[in-house]
Amino acid sequence: MKRGKPEGRCAAAGALAAAILLGFAVAASADEFTRQDLERWQGEYMAVVKKGEALFHGGLKSTNTVSCDQCHPDAADIHPETYPKFQRQLGRVAVLGEMINWCIMNPLQSKPLALDDPRMVALQAYITFERRGVALAPGKH
Amino acid sequence: MRRPIDRREFLKRGGALLAAGALPMSLVEIAFGKDSGREGFTFAYLSDSHITHVRGREFVRNWDRGLIQAVAEANLLDPRPDFIMYGGDIAQLGKREEIDHGLEILSGLRGEVRYVMGEHDYYLDLGEHWRRRLGPDHYSFRHKGVQFIVLNSILTDDDWTHRRWPSAAERMHQMARLDNPQGSPFMVGEAQRAWLRGELEKVDTDTPLVVFSHSPLQKIYKGWNFWTDDAEQVQALLKPFRKVTVLYGHVHQIQYNQIGNISFHSVMATAWPWPYPQSFVQSPSHLPKLTVPMDRANPFFERDGTGWQFIDLHTGNADVHYLLPDNRNRVVAYDTAAGHPVDREYQDPKRRIPPQTRY
């Protein structure tokens, strides 16, 4: 392969410089965010927590009318900080979403959700929010 | 009876007896206290069935099964309990269908049943259907030298009850949500306290007194109405009596306490268990220090964390025997030397077991 002409080298150098500049620009946009950004993101999160709270308190379709909050007021006795953990009843390590589905299928006698279903995400956002401040204790029984 | 009967033994004996045509079985050996000088007796206590109407003739199977099982087991007690108390919340949303269906299952009980009003029975029609089926919501009776008082402790202020909600169904839904920030604290209220004062004036202060309420007549956690707002005023009325026991439902868990002369015991739900309030970490709560918690429930066994009780009053104080499906039974009895109720097996912290650790 022939070495490039001077103009070619120039163009390559220019492209490199542009790439470096662009790279800096991308890095700056990833690292710098404003207070307004933080507020917006917190707002987005809390909107999903609110949605989860509504699903938890009868908003989730339940064929027998039973709702999550009947057994878990304020999402108590779920212990999201302990997941993933060995779930002895399943004989393996499980994530919280699997246990939420267990409740949906049994006490609620309803159909389970996909683990990435927005309703499943919202339920977990609410359950975890109600346990905020508690230290992570993965695996704890 | 010192040792709680284990569930397997209970069912084995019960099953054998059923097969043999329900011959008597000696579950309760009443030890007459030397100082009691009165006839010993027991009564059974069922509570919090939350029968839920789904549609047509369909009811939530799980809650039906809890009540059916408690009725069947209570019918195996021998000697027979002198009577049976039902501690409130037959229904989930106060519907006639729910109260009627619950009473149909309860009609299988062998023996006289007396009832306490729960908030789930009350806030749809303000107790009208319940009273039509069962009579007054507060009353007293005397049995073998013990004075019994039944209170409706789940009333709340007039504004919340009569002016806050667009419909009776909405009011019931709001009260049915335990963790409701729009809820309102329970109270016995002035009228019933005046009635209670009048009733107690007729009773000698040496007479053992047993008070039934749905909500605790003590303050544990306001956020879930494990609470009665005028508890101190009711306690003050009970103060002159030597032996006082308050038995309450509502909390779906084992709690016990001693405040001055008054012993407090909660009873289990036949429907489902509730967390101890300390598990909700965003708000302080006050579980009595005496209470050794019930085991954490295994959700894969739908009756785990539920149960019913029989109560032995031979000393004039209550020995509460908890019949706990899928768990070892427990006995919480008044200890004369200590002057408060103790769990006969687990009171000593060294004897407690890992499932009793709540967090």
Layout of SSEs?
The complex is a heterodimer of chains A (141) and B (359).
Chain A lengths: L5 H26 L3 H25 L8 H4 L13 E3 L4 E3 L1 H10 L12 H12 L12
Antiparallel strand pairs in A: 1-2
Helix pairs in contact in A: 2-5
Chain B lengths: L6 H13 L22 E5 L6 E3 L2 E2 L1 H14 L8 E4 L9 H11 L6 E3 L3 H4 L5 H7 L4 E5 L2 E5 L7 H6 L4 H9 L13 H12 L7 E5 L17 H8 L5 E5 L7 E4 L2 E5 L41 E5 L6 E5 L6 E6 L4 E4 L16
Parallel strand pairs in B: 1-4, 4-5, 7-8, 8-9, 9-11
Antiparallel strand pairs in B: 1-12, 2-3, 6-7, 10-11, 12-13, 13-14, 14-15
Helix pairs in contact in B: 8-9
What does this structure look like?
The complex is a heterodimer of chains A (141) and B (359). Chain A is built from 5 helices and 2 strands. Chain A is globular and about 45 Å long. Chain A is mostly helical. Residues 1-6 of chain A have low confidence and may be disordered. A two-stranded antiparallel sheet of chain A has the order 1-2. In chain A, helix 2 (35-59) crosses helix 5. In chain A, a hairpin with a 4-residue loop joins strand 1 (85-87) and strand 2. Chain A has helices at residues 6-31, 35-59, 68-71, 96-105, 118-129, and strands spanning 85-87, 92-94. Chain B has one domain (41-348): Metallo-dependent phosphatases (Purple Acid Phosphatase, chain A, domain 2, 4-Layer Sandwich), CATH 3.60.21. Chain B has helices at 7-19, 61-74, 96-106, 119-122, 128-134, 158-163, 168-176, 190-201, 231-238; strands spanning 42-46, 53-55, 58-59, 83-86, 113-115, 139-143, 146-150, 209-213, 244-248, 256-259, 262-266, 308-312, 319-323, 330-335, 340-343. Chain B has a 7-stranded mixed sheet, with helices on one face. In chain B, helix 8 (190-201) packs parallel to helix 9. The longest helix of chain B is centred in the first third of the chain and has 14 residues, at 61-74. The chains are: A mainly alpha (141), B alpha/beta (359). Chains A and B meet through helix 3 and helix 4 of A and loops of B.
